Amino acid sequence: MERKIAKLSGVMLLALILSGCVVQQQQQPAPVEPVQPVPEQPQPVPTQPPPPETVPQPPKMRSINWDASVTPLVAQMLKADGITPGSVLLIDGVKNSTNGSLQRAKATASLQSALQNNTQFKLVTPEQLATAKQTLGLSAEDSLSSRSKAVGLARYVGAQYVLYTNAKGDVKSPELQMQLMLVQTGEIIWSGNGVVQH
């Protein structure tokens, strides 16, 4: 009988195995490792040229046509009464009495040019003027702001007349004032005014 039980037990065991009723061990879930975030690859930025730098524009200086500004006044002066033809004329540098900055050297050069071929006066040359200023201890840039300086200089170079020119008023549209003075007496024998031409 023991043999039968052993056989029966073996068959039952085999039947249990075959039927799938196997006792499973309770399994622990495998530990989950934290996932490291993958660093994002930087997205390529479309390359654009940098915006052009805006350079501030300097204030625009209105250009003055000095030739056109001084010529009509010079023409008036040459017709003035009381001028002795052939006299020596000292042209004083154009003074700036405006509320801004003017190109005085250009203005004076235009004045010299306008009188270059006149028949009334012989001009004191810029070289003679520079030498006389140096001899008298005046700066080459001295615009002879005082009449006494101009008269002294005119006497030194042997001039009979001095021409004063002054730009005054608003620098954007200055007015020119000219005066022709007799050196010996200080008398103003002609004066004229005009607006500068742009």
TrEMBL record:
Classification via Gene3D superfamilies: ABC-type transport auxiliary lipoprotein component
Subcellular location per the Swiss-Prot or TrEMBL entry: Cell outer membrane
Annotated membrane topology: Lipid-anchor
Domain of life assignment: Bacteria
UniProtKB keywords: Cell outer membrane, Cell shape, Lipoprotein, Membrane, Palmitate, Peptidoglycan synthesis, Signal
Transmembrane segments: none
Region (Disordered) residue spans: 32-58
Range of residues in the leader sequence: 1-25
InterPro entries, per database record: LpoB
Subunit structure: Interacts with PBP1b.
PANTHER family for the chain: PENICILLIN-BINDING PROTEIN ACTIVATOR LPOB
Role, per record: Regulator of peptidoglycan synthesis that is essential for the function of penicillin-binding protein 1B (PBP1b).
Protein family membership: Belongs to the LpoB family.
Name of the protein this chain belongs to: Penicillin-binding protein activator LpoB
Annotated organism of origin: Erwinia aeris
Lineage, opening ranks: Bacteria, Pseudomonadati, Pseudomonadota, Gammaproteobacteria, Enterobacterales
